[in-house]
Amino acid sequence: MIEHWSVVEHWELFLPIGVIGAISWTVWLVRKLLSARYRPLVNDFRTTTSVVVPSFHEDPDVLERCLDTWLDQGPDEVIVVLDVADTEARDRLMVRSDPRIHVMMFRHAGKRSALGVGIRAARFDVLVLTDSDTAWEPGLLDAVQMPFVDPLVGAVGTRQNVYEPHSSIWRRVADWIIDLRYLDYVPATARRGGVVCLSGRTAAYRRSAVLPVLTHVEHEYFLGRRCVAGDDGRLTWLVLAQGYRTEHQDSARALSMFPATFTAFCKQRVRWSRNSYRCYLTAVYQGWLWRQPLISQLTVFQILFTPVTMFATVYYVAAAFTSPQRDLAVALGITWLFVGRAIRSFSHLRRKPADLAILPLVTLVIMLVALPIKTWAFVTMNKQGWLTRHADRIGGEGQDEASLTTGDARAGA
Fold this sequence. Notes:
Layout: H1 2-9, H2 11-36, E1 49-55, H3 60-71, E2 77-83, H4 87-94, E3 101-106, H5 111-121, E4 126-130, E5 134-136, H6 140-145, E6 153-162, H7 169-190, E7 202-206, H8 207-210, H9 214-218, E8 221-222, E9 225-226, H10 231-241, E10 245-256, H11 262-286, H12 294-304, H13 306-319, H14 326-344, H15 346-351, H16 359-379, H17 407-411
Parallel strand pairs: 1-2, 1-4, 2-3, 6-10
Antiparallel strand pairs: 4-7, 5-10, 6-7, 8-9
Helix pairs in contact: 1-2, 2-7, 2-12, 2-13, 11-12, 11-16, 13-14, 13-16
InterPro entries: Nucleotide-diphossugar_trans (IPR029044)
Subcellular location: Cell membrane
Organism: Pseudonocardia petroleophila
């Protein structure tokens, strides 16, 4: 009876939803199958490396903890570009007397400006750009160099997760979401050498591929406004536009500090979504996208149209309230919502089965990100700003070292 009401009497309302759903699931399945066949490259290729770290009012405890993980892997140099006000961090780094550490004091005008200063000062073949709150797991530096054996490879991304995810429910949710990105999405595009965004938390670039386009990273304008964030997506596409491949190394693993609070979590997602819209719309407009593998094109378009696909899901559940058998229709709609999310999250749940307990929360958060947050980000995509880092505070919002142990962090306040 519910089938008669929804499909027969109102088929014209649900046909577009069915088409959108079929496309979305087909693209997901294709990416899932391609990702399942991905394997990281293993060889003995090594070259010289410069680690470049833009650091704006980072918690010195976080910076030093991460610095130890970088130095332990033997880079040729580590260039830390501090803001002129970061005197405590400067003093802590200088007292180490490690000849590989080069501290540069610079009045930051956004992350891009600091990256430009550090990259120009770098002297070695591969630039490893890393965030000041990102730690490396053992073996990252060796693994991230391996794809550069191919001269057509211009950049290499890393597998990433959240540092201490159980210190906050919002970090745990973020770890679920980012885990799926690197299990089911990025490897698919990497198999064709077309990773569409190498996360700035840690990525390696061929220095000779970056220097010719560096000014276009520092001085990007979108609809007349200078871009502040989104340096990683911009640099990825500038490398792709030169004809290089962008690869992924699952064996190179990094752990980043993520926000411990819901407010900071949402701000981070707004910033990321704005960056994505500007980056991918530029890639479409410039024609760069059409020279990339089909799976990369599909990935970009699914990201751009995420609010549309999520609206179809919400519309179906909302329409169930008008069904003659409303309770059953709503129950079936909501059940499929959670079951569908569990199916799409199988890769993460296989790795962390205990996270099944937070499936309802993760489902609601993904809906929040995919519809209202991304819609708001699209409407305001040219509003520039970092949102979670401020000149009057140390560390990112909800991302200092103390947030790992405070009661507010554990409660996810």
